Amino acid sequence: MAQIKIENLRKDFGAFTAVQSSTFTVEDGEFFMLLGPSGCGKTTTLRMMAGLELPTSGRIYIDGEEVGQKPASQRDIAFVFQMFALYPHMNVGKNMSYPLLSQGMSRIDANARVAEVARLLGISHILTKPVGGLSGGDRQRVALGRAIVRNPKAFLMDEPLGALDAEFREHMAEELRALHDRMGATTVYVTHDQLEAMQMGDKIVVMNHGVVEQFGVPQDIYDWPASMFVAQFLGSPPMNFLRAHGLVGSGADSLALGEARITIPAQREGLSGDFALGVRPEHVRLNDSASLRGEIIATEYLGTTQIVTVRTSFGEVKARVASDQKVAVRTATGLHLDARNLSVFDAETGRALRSVANQGVLGLG
Ligand code: ATP
Predict the structure, then answer these.
(1) Which atom of ligand 1 is nearest to the CA of 207?
(2) Are 118 and 124 within 8 A, CB to CB?
């Protein structure tokens, strides 16, 4: 088991910076997600943790020891790839015992360890089968087994379920999380799937263009995104943004959406200029008496809920409401935004106003 600490980690490929000054800590025993769109630097970060890529600058500590320049073989962490790289000419058991035998373990001890891990993974019955004929899920279990037998300090996984179809992927995600809960080994897991990250992770780092946008527990990241990028990357549909502008008043500042005023208490940043008011679809209600007005332009039925799209003069807003609520396209409606769940972003920088998030409460004027 291990704590992995990343400090100001940077990786340049020639003139291109793939990872810029990343800092975060993976605590011992955590299931930790590296989340972000394609090309944001997740894999490069993971490869630097593994020792497969040397950092341009910055430090990596495993249990307090600086390992940034150490080769992979001296870090005692296992890397599980998306493409299950199994030895095709060996059966399942031999695939799993190979890393142990090549470390010099006796065949008897290796077989005992393989049997133990196979039980943990529920693959004891296929140990003598050739890997060629296995299903995708079993191949992935064997690949995991081969990593687990060595009892490494931590597991690094790069989109390990990426090659599986959606339904089976969800099943394997649950299985992987349950396995982690039994073993308690520190795991760093790369994914571009926000739902997978929220479902499986104890903590999430969200990356964009090589930069760590936010780092924290899934609920905090979902409820209080640090930037408009994070707000849009998590959630389906993503957070709505309404164009607002700041009014610096005597006493409390406020945000104006047309005639509507939203009071922002104790604004250290000062509220002048343009802002984006962020609200998740589940925190918007259709309410005819609300002062924020718009026209319903689309509905999307999703079973127990429906997504209603409303055009307002401040931008389009999607509301998630019960599917038995009667809504008619091309009619006017009022929108009520839940005052406890509004985020405010600087329209220019896209960054959230932290003092708003910390208080978690805004007054609707
Ligand atoms: P994906 O999900 O598509 O794998 P990612 O977030 O894991 O994306 P990385 O693979 O870390 O992203 O790549 C980050 C950026 O660095 C990309 O623009 C990629 O093209 C670039 N890059 C990665 N490896 C190299 C390399 N060896 N040489 C040059 N550029 C590289």
Answers:
(1) 6
(2) yes
